[in-house]
Amino acid sequence: MPTMLNANQTLGAAFHASPVIQTAIKSILAELAQRQQTLTGAKPACGELRESLDSWLCRATDVRGRGPLYPYLGSGLGNGALVELADGSVKWDLINGIGVHMFGHSDLMLVEAMLRASLSDLVMQGNLQYNEDAIEFAEMLRDEAAKHSRLQHCFVTNSGCMANEAALKVCQQKTGGAPRIIAFADCFMGRSTTMSQIGDTAGYRQGVALNVLVDYLPFYDADFGERSMDRAIWQLEQYIHRYPGQHCALVVELVQGEGGFNTAPRDFFVTLFERARAAGIPIWDDEIQTFGRTESMFCFEHLDLGEYIDVATVGKITQACACLYTADFNPKAGLLSGTFSASSSAFATGLAILKRLRSGGFYGANGRNAQLFDAFRQQAESFVRSHPQWFPSLPTATGGESKRFVAGTGGMMRLSPFGGSKEKIGRLLNNLFEDGVIAFSCGHGPYHLRFLPPIGVMQPAQFKSVFEIMERSFARTS
Predict the structure, then answer these.
(1) Neighbour tally for 349: CB within 10 Å
(2) What is the Cα–Cα distance from 6 to 205, expressed in whole angstroms?
(3) Which burial class, exposed, middle or buried, applies to 171 when counting CB atoms under 10 A from its CB (0-12, 13-18, 19+)?
(4) Which of 91, 237, 241, 306 is most buried, with most CB under 10 Å away?
């Protein structure tokens, strides 16, 4: 029998509130919870299933034209930081699609949000057709950002790269089409034609016609301290003097992602931001990877830099992505739009994630993010002390040596073995994957192990199991 319709209720609202729907969702979640509890640790592949996985990977290679980075193909089931692959193996997923899945695999809250979203009339929402959840998502991001900054408006789009494209357009329009941009060495901005030129990785723009004018600043180097800050401000002064009025933005990752999970103190940014502001250069904060992972929801809040930020971009763990900007940077009609902004399931899970981040005890000096990083740091430092042969000094950009083998912040974690050798770390990543740990690399020489664990669900004690596997993988590699 259909649910009775309240006079103040739409047919859609009545459908989604139907007791039949509620009972079905509860049954699915109960079945999922029962099955995922059998995933308690890493385990090897099953013989017959391995052949099936190999067949799928051959198909993937054929259709794309090159093989995948890892022989990864999920079964569709996991349990937090553990994921089951199509070959029956179970692995600790400490990269989560480069940080997209903060709550890991098969999280019951997110599965419920996706189930409810699957009943929507729209698969994809966009600029011309959207439902209430699209507005709620943008409002929540905007309201959280506005608590500690001047950011007042939010444009939602379907990838971090497109959020960065929107930010660049906003900055260019504000500065009357100023053609140059200031970025930091080793930055990563995305894979579009424009963003691949701003990002400081030559391989990502190989064969691309270069038409973006980028000036690079050296990022903070803890081994040089004050001298590092002096070097960056000197370089900024040179650019401002050489190209007066020609820069549309100074873009910064407050914690560098692909560049090596490099961090910097507040004073480093304040000095640069003050000088850029005096020269009329907008400040664009790229938080595609940092959002949600530090000791505050926004990294600019953690570093108390909100007053300087004119434009900010977020993505990855938010599922839907966004460009936020101040009232002064609100663009003219027509500059920002798009057929797709996000899927209904992305909005539903994004909203659920933002609500959980806001109330889940993740932030502050003793929050979940800080505790998880502290657990990683303790395990990693003990690992380094126990195996000094795997941790020779790292070369620095200025020809010196560094012994900073453990670095990062919050949910962005780095370990630097084998002197930063690209070849050895590549072999190590493959061995780790075979043994049950999914990680990735970062840095541009030296290279590092990069971890983006699902900080929403991973427990500090679980690093013990991870490092036991890592010990075997390191031994095989060395």
Answers:
(1) 28
(2) 57
(3) buried
(4) 91
Q: Which two tokens stand for residue 259?
A: 């560049």
Q: Is 448 helix (H, G, I), strand (E, B) or coil?
A: strand
Which of 64-73, 130-139, 395-404 has the least mean pLDDT?
395-404
Amino acid occupying residue 213: L
Q: Listing from the earlier edge strand, what are the strands of the sheet with 82-85?
A: 74-79, 82-85, 90-93, 437-438
Could you tell me which CATH number the domain at 124-359 has?
3.40.640.10
**Residues 127, 334 contacting (CB under 8 angstroms):** no
Q: How far apart are CA 97 and CA 118, in angstroms?
A: 22
**Averaged pLDDT, 137-157:** 98
User: What's residue 69's pLDDT?
Assistant: 85
CB contact set of 114 (below 8 Å; sequence gap of 6+): 345, 348, 349
Buried b (16+ CB within 10 A) or exposed e, 126-138: beeebbebbebbb
Decide if domain 368-477 falls under CATH 3.90.1150.10.
yes
What does DSSP say about strands 180-184 and 247-252: parallel, antiparallel, or unpaired? parallel
For residue 160, count other CB atoms closer than 10 A to its CB: 27
- Alpha helices, DSSP H only, in 262-405? 266-278, 299-302, 344-359, 368-386
Show the tokens assigned to 159: 């990838």
Distance CA 330, CA 446 (A): 40
Task: Give CA–CA dist 354/346, Å, rounded.
Answer: 12
Q: Distance between CA atoms of 181 and 208, rounded to whole angstroms?
A: 18
Domain ranges of the chain: 15-93, 124-359, 368-477
Regarding pTM above 0.85, the answer is yes
Answer for the pair 477, 427: CB distance below 8 angstroms, yes or no: yes
180 bridge partner residues: 213, 247
Strand partners, 284: 251, 311
Chain-wide mean pLDDT for the chain?
A: 95
Residues in the chain: 478
190 and 160 in contact (C-beta within 8 Å)?
yes
Rounded CA separation 286/258 (Å): 13
Element (H, E) at 110: helix 108-117
Q: Measured between alpha carbons, how far is 184 from 391 in angstroms, rounded to an integer?
A: 27
Is pLDDT at 8 greater than 80 in this prediction?
no
